[in-house]
Design a protein that fits this description.
Elements lengths: L14 H10 L2 E9 L5 E7 L3 H7 L1 E4 L13 E6 L5 E2 L9 E10 L10 H14 L2 E14 L22 H15 L4 E6 L5 E6 L2 E2 H21 L3 E3 L13 E9 L20 H21 L5 H4 L9 E2 L1 E3 L6 E3 L12 E3 L8 H17 L17 H6 L3 E2 L4 H9 L2 H7 L1 H19 L4 H7 L4
Parallel strand pairs: 1-6, 14-15
Antiparallel strand pairs: 1-2, 3-4, 4-6, 5-6, 7-9, 7-10, 7-11, 7-12, 8-9, 12-16, 13-17, 15-16
Helix pairs in contact: 3-8, 4-5, 6-8, 6-10, 8-11, 10-12, 11-12
Length: about 450
């Protein structure tokens, strides 16, 4: 859930600010962070003595071993730290010097942005939105599970349900410590609560611009795991770790604000419309619906992701939109008078293990495509789409998301929108990686097959 309290004030930091803060806070080590195309956080550390040079010229590293990065014959890469992301890591020991982190932009040795860098991909799409007069704000609801360890079958810590106040246990304290740590790092938190499945939890980050949020989401996932590890338990963002219960999603709230009028205003709001949605908002939604099948590979990138996207659970399967209803792919939270800035679109299919830089990029690209091409928006679904028959859904023009990773790959591979949003390099590398994953998966003999067929065939 999210009430959309937007954070708009950003402190612009420069090289001198970072050097002063590193000195004042007695920083000894700085971890330089970036992500590969799959959204795995990568890091290497430098000492404070190297910091000034790193801020001026970046730090070189071998990109040939990073998934989706350079070939071995063009492996040299530069990690250029972003001063705006300088932050102390609270869970690291302070003895002998504090540890800080900065996210990096990845460059070629000559200074050109590397087109396989997911952070650059998002910045490229945000630039397009800016040129159209918009600033893109997001707020993801990242769900996750706590388990006793990462060995064998997952073992839940509790049997609580949605919003349950379970007896004081390790999960309650873990959520509290995670929220405090995030806030200490300057990441705003709106809500934290128990989710629907046993041992499932959610912490909602405060609405802000998409680049800051993508950095925050990556930090959030690491903090959740670090705090859990300290307490001897395991946290996972795996989309569907337990059969028969809800999986972990990343419902993403989005809105566009005008950047041309001197003061920001939410361009999704229209007081005269019966849904309080502007023409821009409706076209944005239409773009999301039209491109949903092909961009599902980005928002749901794993074989396991499609175990979550099945009928009967909260994850959406059908391509429809509605007011308030949580069974549709796109939901419009109820308008509250006096909260015009809170008008937003909630896209409900992404899971919590996606690459947020790429997920935000393709959702924005789809919405902007709808605005540019004036896509018509069908009427909202008037009933629960999951309870409709196949014929009723077909008559209403309601399609379905891909049923498995292979179908998602085939749809994505044909998408000009994805290729444009992601760059030729990253698009090709991602398709190649996902085909390898699918081929490895489909060649496995699973426990299900052995239990079902071995005794009778």
């Amino acid at each position: 859930m999210s009430t959309l309290t937007k954070t708009t004030s950003k402190i612009t930091r420069d090289k001198d600010y970072v050097l002063k803060m590193a000195h004042d806070l007695r920083v000894k080590f700085i971890r330089l962070w970036f992500t590969d195309i799959l959204g795995f956080l990568k890091s290497f550390a430098i000492t404070v003595e190297e910091l000034e040079g790193a801020l001026s010229e970046g730090m070189g590293f071998d990109g040939s071993s990073i998934e989706g990065f350079a070939r071995i014959d063009e492996s040299d890469m530069i990690a250029m730290p972003d001063p705006n992301t300088f932050c102390i890591l609270p869970w690291r020991p302070q003895e002998g010097g504090a540890v800080a982190r900065m996210f990096c932009n990845i460059l070629y040795p000559g200074g050109k942005p590397f087109e396989g860098d997911p952070r650059w991909i998002l910045k490229k799409n945000l630039k397009r939105a800016h040129e159209m007069g918009y600033t893109f704000y997001v707020s993801p609801e990242l769900e996750f599970f706590y388990f006793r360890d990462q060995e064998g079958a997952p073992q839940a810590l509790d049997q609580g349900g949605y919003f349950d106040l379970t007896p004081l246990d390790v999960a309650t304290d873990l959520r509290r410590e995670t929220v405090l740590t995030l806030e200490e790092m300057g990441i705003g938190v709106e809500y934290s609560h128990h989710e629907a499945a046993p041992s499932q939890h959610e912490i909602d980050l405060r609405y802000t611009d998409a680049l800051t949020m993508a950095d925050s989401a990556m930090t959030y996932r690491l903090v959740v795991k670090e705090i859990a590890l300290k307490s001897g338990v395991y946290a996972t963002f795996m989309p569907k770790p337990i059969q028969g219960v809800n999986g972990s999603g990343m419902h993403t709230h989005m809105s566009l604000f005008s950047n041309r009028s001197g003061s920001e205003r939410n361009v999704f709001f229209d007081p005269k419309d019966k849904f309080h949605l502007s023409v821009i908002a409706k076209r944005f939604i239409a773009g999301l619906l039209k491109h949903a099948p092909e961009m599902t590979l980005i928002t749901n990138q794993w074989v396991n992701s499609y175990k979550r996207l099945v009928p009967g659970y909260e994850a959406p399967v059908y391509i429809s939109w509605a007011l308030r209803s949580r069974s549709d792919l796109v939901r419009i939270p109820e308008y509250k008078p006096g909260r015009e800035d809170s008008t937003r679109v909630e896209y409900r299919s992404p899971d919590a293990s996606c690459n947020p830089y790429l997920a935000f990029s393709v959702m924005l690209a789809a919405g902007l495509d709808g605005i540019e091409k004036d896509y018509p928006l069908p009427p909202p679904s008037g009933r629960n789409v999951a309870e409709m028959t196949d014929k009723e859904r077909e008559a209403a023009g309601i399609g379905m998301l891909p049923a498995d990773l292979n179908e998602a790959i085939k749809l994505a591979e044909k998408s000009s929108l994805l290729r444009k949003a992601l760059s030729d390099h990253l698009f090709a590398k991602l398709i190649e990686n996902k085909k390898i994953e699918w081929n490895r998966y489909r060649s496995q003999v699973t426990d299900y097959e052995l239990k079902r067929y071995y005794p009778i065939l």
